[in-house]
Structure prediction request, 248 residues.
Amino acid sequence: MRPLLRAARALLVLAALAAGAARAGDLDVTPVNVELSGGARTALMSLRNRGGAPARYQIRAFRWAQKPDGAMDLSPTRELAVFPPLLELGAGEARSLRIGTDAAPAATERTWRIFIEELPQAETAEDAARVKVLTRVGVPVFLAPAARVEHGELAFLGRDGTHVRFALRNPGTVRLRPSAVTLALVAADGARVLERSLEAWYVLAGGERVYEVAVPPEACARAASVVVSAALARGAIEARAPGACRDP
Prediction:
């Protein structure tokens, strides 16, 4: 196992350089996503303290689900192991975290988040007993499913004349990460009388993100239909409904 982990360390450091880094305060974290699979259930993450003084960090793992509004639903988990869970980095020092799981791939992608939290330097016994987080970096961790299916759907949920509600649903087995989600009110001649860019973030496998968008009466009066779209990695998807701001 040790030779395998040493080889994995070298490969993951190279991959991390291509994957980009997250920064909070003086801490650099690489990579910004951790991808696990049935054949590779361990990975390495690099932490670098770019500050001019030593810093202490604690690392915690959580199971990651989502609420309909996109908010993270986190709960502590032992499915994901992180070592070391507590470390100190000197000024300019870098170290690796080992991340791994014994969980088997499921029908849908398993999702966790680890949080790297900077702690204040303890000056007294009382300080050491008090936990105060200075900065916090969250990194998603994914375990690939048994079969990869990428699929997204858009569905209207209701239109009452002042708001349009719709959902971006993920009936696939892996996460969606739209680069853009938009709503437009369209006139009979095809002109767009209103266009709104909405928050685009993860929609986890089997989940949905519900949007509720306020629409001004003057734009509704000019519109003949409403169009919602999402730009996904495999192409854009769209849903269109007549009647613009009201259900037929």
Remarks:
- The mean pLDDT is 89.
- Helices lie at 2-19, 125-129, 217-222.
